[in-house]
Amino acid sequence: MERKLSKASRSLTSSAIQELSHLAQRCGAINLAEGFPDFPAPPHIKRAAVAAINADLNQYRHVQGICDQLAVMMKQNHGLDVNALTDFVICCGQSEAFAATILATIDQGDEVLLFDPAYETYESCIILAGGIPVNVPLEPPHWTLNVDKFMKSFTSRTKAVVLNSPHNPTGKVFSKEELEAIAAACCQMDCLAITDEVYEYITFDLQKHISLASLPKMQERTIITSSLSKTFSLTGWRIGWACAPTTVASAIKNIHVRITDSAPSPFQEAALAALQSPPGYFKSLKAEYEARRDFVIQMLSDVGFQISFKPQGSVFVFAELPKNWLVSDIEFVKVLIEKAGVAAVPGCGFFHGDIDDQNLRTRYVRFAFCKGSDTLNAAARKLQDIVGSTGHLQL
Ligand SMILES: Cc1ncc(COP(=O)(O)O)c(C=O)c1O
């Protein structure tokens, strides 16, 4: 039967990360692996979803109010004038918005630049569309953009640059200067920019999220994708959107309609309530996540990690294994699950390109801190339980 499978599907094999995820489940490990919250969603949003279900909003649906509200937020947050009637597509999460964007813009053989390490799904979507991912390495410890290397990655076939800021897995927020370099390159090379801004409201230490589209001459060539998932702790509700120049938005909509037709109706109604949350909601979201970030950094430092890059946003710490721990990221996570009962994600799955320093690929582990205090405290206790007399994890 395998020979009946498409080449594209055969290129997507199950990874060591998935196997470790099964191991974590079998061991009942505390989950600091996956980027979904384990605390409740805000009550006002849940009430709106329940009301929508009780009102029998059960059919295919487009809630224009979401687009109207997003247009207001684009203006308030980024100074962007967006046509609410024509420039948004409501999708099943950022994931569908991104996939539909790639299908709407990438032809066979088109090259798409990705910053490496990267969230895993970009590469797969590009390959499924027949495009060619081209990886541009970010340089540790601060995951800096090397503008020279970036510029050298462009060819006459480069169609788009994908930018995820705040960034999964590193927690980097791209600086204004880096964004300016990316914008200048996109304009000079006449490329599209596709942004993933799902962590737009989760930034720390006075860092401000800047949308690439807000830089001069960028709105006309940028497709913004984002979602409710992270901002409102609703990863399973599958509401996201693409915001793009009208012609591109219309192409994305045509693809979205053929793939899923509409995002879940009751949750679209609730999305409107979510997006209309008062400013205090967004303020406390940041403060609570900043406290969780600090907790996890302390927790890791207490067991021997030296965190050289404090996340500036997102819900992840991408921690380098201390030099004297002579294990790979996969071996480390396996032992962490089996001995400490705590699950994290080996960093290797986020690196896609040829990196100068091959050690990098196997020396990072990603810890998610989108977890309630009970979970984080339990994880810290479990790690402490296997600390040896050196004060470091006894692996
Ligand atoms: C960078 C990034 N983009 C997108 C997603 C998925 O977003 P959604 O749930 O809206 O599909 C995730 C989830 O972990 C993510 O980390």
Structure characterization notes:
This protein is an alpha/beta fold and 395 residues long. It has 2 domains: 2-41 and 280-385, Aspartate Aminotransferase, domain 1 (Alpha-Beta Complex); 43-275, 3-Layer(aba) Sandwich (Aspartate Aminotransferase, domain 2). Helices cover 39% and strands 15% of the residues. It is built from 13 helices and 13 strands. It has helices at residues 7-10, 16-26, 43-54, 64-78, 93-105, 121-128, 147-152, 176-188, 246-259, 265-275, 279-301, 329-340, 373-385, and strands at 30-31, 88-91, 111-116, 132-139, 144-145, 158-164, 192-196, 222-227, 240-243, 316-320, 342-343, 345-346, 364-368. The strands form 3 sheets. Strands 2-9-8-7-6-3-4-5 form an 8-stranded mixed beta sheet, with helices on both faces. Helix 6 links the parallel strand 3 (111-116) and strand 4 (132-139). Helix 5 packs parallel to helix 6. The chain is globular and about 65 Å long. The structure holds pyridoxal-5'-phosphate (PLP). Pyridoxal-5'-phosphate is lined by residues 35, 93-95, 119, 164, 168, 196, 198, 227, 229, 235, 240. This is (wild Malaysian banana) hypothetical protein. It comes from Musa acuminata subsp. malaccensis (Wild banana). Pfam families: Aminotran_1_2 (PF00155). Residues 30-369 form the Aminotransferase class I/classII large domain. InterPro entries: Aminotransferase_I/II_large, Kynurenine-oxoglutarate_AT, NHTrfase_class1_PyrdxlP-BS, PyrdxlP-dep_Trfase, PyrdxlP-dep_Trfase_major, PyrdxlP-dep_Trfase_small.
